[in-house]
Structure formats: C-alpha cells, structure tokens
Amino acid sequence: MKDFIYPTVIFIVFLYVLAFMLIYTYKTAPTPPTFTNNSTGTVNVKDLQNELTKQLKLN
After folding, report:
1. Rounded to whole angstroms, what are the CA distances from 49 to 9, 42, 44, 46, 57?
2. Kind and range of the H or E element at 8?
3. Which element (helix H / strand E) includes 53?
4. How far is residue 11's CA from residue 19's CA, in Å, rounded to a whole number?
5. Residue 5 and residue 20: Cα distance in Å, rounded?
6. How far apart are alpha carbons 7 and 31 in whole angstroms?
7. pTM above 0.70, yes or no
8. What is the C-alpha to C-alpha distance for residues 55 and 33, in angstroms, rounded to an integer?
9. Any idea where the domains of the chain sit in the sequence?
C-alpha cells in the first residue's frame, strides 16, 4: 500500500501545479489569440511560388 500512495500523491500535486499554471498564465496575460484569422483572401500558385523563391534566396 505504501508503494501506491507516494506516486498517487505526486500525481495529484502535479495536476494541481498544472492547473495553477494554466489558470495563472491565461488570467494574467491578456494577449490576443495566437492563431488569429489575418487572411485577406485566397492564395494563388504564382504568389506562393514567388514567396517561396524569395524565402529560398534569403537562406
């Protein structure tokens, strides 16, 4: 029974710490969402090809 109690207590403490971190992170930092819809429309193949070519030239 002693072997079962220690991992259970550690797991419960881990869950409490995880919940605290999630609540604290999202309550204190009112930032805009990470994935916002900034899309202006559809992308055509020519624009995509030009953008990829520019990125490859930079690297």
Report:
1. 55, 14, 9, 5, 12
2. helix 2-28
3. helix 45-58
4. 12
5. 23
6. 36
7. no
8. 26
9. 1-32
State how far the Cα of 54 lies from the Cα of 48, in Å rounded to an integer. Answer: 10
Tokens describing residue 36: 């916002």
- Please state the φ and ψ torsions of residue 30, each to the nearest 5 degrees: -80, 75
Q: Name the residue with tokens 């409490």.
A: 16
Per-residue pLDDT tens for 8-56? Answer: 999 999 999 999 998 887 776 566 666 666 666 777 889 889 988 988 8
Q: Give the number of other Cβ atoms within 10 Å of residue 44's Cβ.
A: 9
* Residue type, position 15, single letter: L
